From TrEMBL:
Record keyword Transmembrane helix present: yes
Superkingdom, taxonomy of origin: Bacteria
Keywords: Membrane, Transmembrane, Transmembrane helix
TM ranges: 12-33, 63-84, 96-114, 126-145
Protein known as: Putative integral membrane protein
Organism: Streptomyces himastatinicus ATCC 53653
Transport in keyword set: no
Ranges where the VanZ-like domain occurs: 22-141
Length: 191
């Protein structure tokens, strides 16, 4: 009974994560890929940290708004991608690398699509800030949430999750099963 409840809950979490992920990406595409009618457009900035330096030369409010917007645009992906994946027992470093790489590729795809839209500019710094936002959101939220979910599963009695002892994850072991003798396996006869 517990296993079936756990699988149902995991499916609901994955489905909710996937739905929120699609909704967030649709919002990001609407926000960044719509044509803008402006009297002038700044040039593309392909020099790393050039746009950030220019933003810092502005007023503190304008700099915080510009840099914060770059950090926050794709930051929810840092939480939604692992949620949609639904793996509670994932290795933290591997999960971080996967999420950050996927965030970087998403930011790059948006930047490439944005280069074709009227009134939108491409900035390497936007790519860097978007990726950093994904990484920071993942580091700040995902490990804590996974720890809470593991503790809750242990308290409820979820046997499907590996238990932690002395800081190391213990995986269930199976007894070894020997191979069938060659003559029995090749003859195809069953006795």
């Amino acid at each position: 009974m517990q296993g079936r409840f756990g699988r149902r809950a995991a499916f609901r979490y994955r489905a909710a994560g996937f739905a929120l992920l699609v909704a967030h990406l649709a919002f990001v595409c609407w926000l960044t890929l719509r044509p803008l009618t402006v009297p002038w457009v700044t040039a593309e900035t392909l020099e790393p940290l050039g746009a950030i330096r220019a933003d810092l030369a502005l007023t503190p409010w304008a700099a915080a708004r510009s840099i914060g917007g770059g950090l926050l645009l794709l930051a929810p992906l840092g939480v939604l991608l692992p949620l949609a994946g639904g793996r509670v027992d994932a290795y933290p470093f591997a999960s971080f690398v996967r999420t950050t790489f996927t965030g970087a590729m998403t930011a790059m795809a948006i930047a490439l699509l944005r280069s074709e839209v009227t009134g939108q500019i491409v900035s390497v710094d936007a790519l860097l800030l978007n990726t950093l936002g994904v990484a920071l959101a993942h580091l700040l939220v995902v490990p804590a949430v996974r720890t809470l979910v593991r503790r809750r599963a242990d308290r409820v009695g979820g046997a499907a999750l590996p238990r932690e002892e002395s800081g190391r994850t213990m995986t269930p072991t199976m007894t070894r099963v020997g191979l069938a003798p060659w003559s029995d396996a090749s003859s195809g006869s069953r006795t």
